[in-house]
Amino acid sequence: MQDQPKPNATQPRIARVAKGKRPQYFSDPAIDKLLWITLTLCEELSVTRDRLDTVERLLDKRRVIAVNDIEQYEPDAKTEALREQRRADYIDRVLRAVSAELEELTGRGAASMEEAVAAVES
Fold first, then answer.
1. pLDDT confidence of 2, banded at 50, 70, 90?
2. Structural domain spans, the chain
3. Between 20 and 30 A from 39 (CA), which of 12, 29, 62, 115?
């Protein structure tokens, strides 16, 4: 087992947890917690999907890759656009219930991802 490097006393320490009270959007705090858990899991899954996409693209080109290849990969504009669209579609599916509630309240058609998030934040 390697010894862990000792932290440099001159480096600022970043808190692992945000300080202060979290905003509450729903009357039941349990719903807020469930929403934060869901969104955190969505974020993790989205990053995992991007990394898997990177691995697939690199394997398609090279057949053999190293971990460093994944870390240094820079998607081209077309790939980034595809990933952004996939993320937006994914978030729309995850937040479908919020979008449906917003539609009922406003009488408008299905909300975009941005509108659904704004509704939750207001």
1. very low
2. 29-121
3. 12
Distance CA 2, CA 61 (A): 35
pLDDT in tens, 41-79: 989 999 999 989 988 988 988 888 888 888 898 999 999
3 state DSSP class of 51: helix
CB 44 within 8 A of CB 52: no
